[in-house]
Amino acid sequence: MGDMMKKKVIYRCSKCGYETIKWSGFCQQCGNWNTIEEVVVEKKRNVATSKNTKSLSPVRLSDIKADTSQRIITSMDEFNRVLGGGIVKDSVTIITARPGAGKSTLLLQISSDVAKKGYRVLYASGEESESQIRLRSNRILNEIPENIWILSDISMDNVLKSIEEIDADLVIIDSIQTFVLEEFTSKAGSPIQTIECANALVEIAKNKERPRAVIMVGHMTKADEMAGLRTLEHLVDTVVYLEGESDESIRTLMATKNRFGRTGETGFFSMEEEGMMPIDNPSEFFITKREDGLSVPGTALSVVKEGSRQITVEIESLVSKSFTPYPSRIGECLRRDQLNTLISILEQRGGINLYDKNVVIKTTGGLKLREQAVNLAIIMSIVSSILEKGIPSDVVFIADVGLTGELKRVPSMEARIKELDRMGYKKAYICKDGLKQKLNLKNLQVIELRTLQEVINHVFYNS
Q: Does 3.30.230.10 match the CATH number of domain 285-460?
């Protein structure tokens, strides 16, 4: 019994997690000074774990039954989509975002939705009091279900005890960096406390006799990365990022890791007074509704691939006279380097001078442009603004543009074209031989061209 309670002292860097048996003034791995902390490790839990591990035997992969029905399906299709079809009942998910993005609001809505379906939910917060959570629930929830329990505490030991007492099906932890386990002497937010608290939650979620779903909130650094060690991301099943500026209504939920579904899957929400409202048809949200046939100079349409969906996006450009030696290049929806490259291509290969012009690019709805497939549409919106000629609202551009001015093929072209045809668009400009197979289209005319100059001539001078 004495051996089971034996304590071990190690020294760990609070910045990078490097461990050593001797104390020193600086970390030998990351080089930071005064970051080595003394850590007392209890051996009791490890002995118990090893005993349980010895009793396990390997199982044939072909004999393992995969039950695809073990998910908690919420009423938010956008949330279900990101997680691969709903919350897996023995999964651990971590969601991170900038302060004020709406993490707590979204999770409170999810808690309410799950509780209404008969599941028991424990919402543990180390950042807010019970009254603060109640005030938010009064604002965003029409009714408060009986199956939600609130715990305002930073003790993970108390959280684990409450999970057993309530017999919770879903556990919300807001946020993991604020909780501590009594057996470790480190302060809240230190790497060892964060990892060990997460380990304890993983252990209770993966219990074969009583599986539970856990969703943790993780802090985000100034570099827009999850705070703490990478070990935390490897530990959990799903990593979800909630993106969006506090002064904009659009919020994007994206999975960068998912053991139970597709990575890169995206859900769209609008932040309203009553909470996070799912955007069921993003294509309508990211384009401006105009009268039939009305075209406005400076706009062009493209199709972006967000997870498994094809979304039509409207790109707006404003070109104005510059009265300074260095014209402005502002791209709210894309990297400045990408914008400068496209402007250089347009000047050299399209024969349009912009050396004395300010160029501003943005998208309707604030959608970030991450794909190269929108590059032709960006350039065409700039040309439209310069020439003050509108592009018909039923014309779409899908192609990358090389430094030579040649149009380049992009992935999933067939899926993009099919979606445009379904939505009733009339023309789509793509690169030559951009389609790998012939499609049976009802509404859409696909125009395949080789160069940027050909597209400009075809749209503005030959139509």
A: yes
